[in-house]
Amino acid sequence: MHLARFQRVSLGHFPTPLERLDRLTRRLDGPEIHVKRDDCTGLATGGNKTRKLEYLVAEAIAQGADTLVTQGATQSNHVRQTAAAARRHGMACHALLERRVVNMGAPYETGGNVLLDDLLGCQYEFRDSGIDMNAAAREFGERLRAEGRKPYVIPGGGSNALGALGYAACAAEFVAQADAQGLRFDAIVHATGSTGTQAGLVAGLHAMNAPIEVIGISVRANRETQVSNVHRLACATLELLGVGGTLPRERVRVYDEYVGAGYGQPTASMVEAVRMLAQEEGLLLDPVYSGKGMAGMIGLVRAGVLRAGQRIAFLHTGGASALFSYEQTFRDDQ
Ligand SMILES: *Cc1c(COP(=O)(O)O)cnc(C)c1O
Fold first, then answer.
1. pLDDT tier, 104 (very low <50, low <70, confident <90, very high otherwise)
2. Active site residue 76
3. Are β-strands 32-37 and 311-316 bridged in parallel, bridged antiparallel, or unpaired?
4. Pocket-testing residue among 283, 289, 315, ligand 1, by greatest number of atoms within 8 A of Cβ
5. Main-chain dihedrals φ then ψ at residue 283, nearest 5 degrees
């Protein structure tokens, strides 16, 4: 694996910190828990899409694009980071927002990330759920091209092989930090959605022969679907990296027990996790991704799957700006 072969622009603050969570570790009384702070990438409140965008925006610039086009759910962290990345490089950003979560009340469509999209000058249009959003974004790009723009279309979550390189790079960064701190890790746990994060981590660790498990906590798809999608993208990423050999499907571990009623729908375990991390560690998670990811990690510790004697890193993928559009969820639960 030699990532400098790929063009990359600088959008974030790297390396992100790798820190101990001593109070959470004591509270859960299981493995030693650390956090990899990818909520601190620095791009317009940060998050995991920043690493992917460093590669994707480099390709957009190389192709002479003047407009980034992408799509996501209404409260998409990916759209917000793409809008910020576009501005940093003097480009426009057009986004399609899918009404994937419909029962969250008025602040959901104007607050949180949508407010930030507005501030960043992102032009967005809403779409009803149930359509092929990546196809809609490509069509939208063609419409802009017909109008004389030079669009570069980024798939949802920035999750193609090029974007996943960002998390292969994160795997290398993580292993270097762990080695520098003299810490042997057993697993990395994180929320998995559009799959680029998990696929990139799995590909990167596989390429480095690093025996660290990656455990994805699904926020949307069932286990079978998510494992297949992550595995497919991890294989494509390894091919792009020029790493030979086959990646066993068993290297992809996913739990789907923490989705609840659906994408973006609050769960009791998510509310518990968000509150626990806020009050034990002063760390803000988010209701859609990292809150459910942490709920999954807590659940696996309680179930004894993750246990004393192990050392675990929770990858904090960001998203706390969406908390403000879920105010009622946290008030109702008090
Ligand atoms: C997009 C996102 C994820 C999921 O990452 P994928 O690469 O889409 O699987 C996790 N957490 C947050 C906060 C996100 O915005």
1. confident
2. yes
3. parallel
4. 289
5. -110, 130
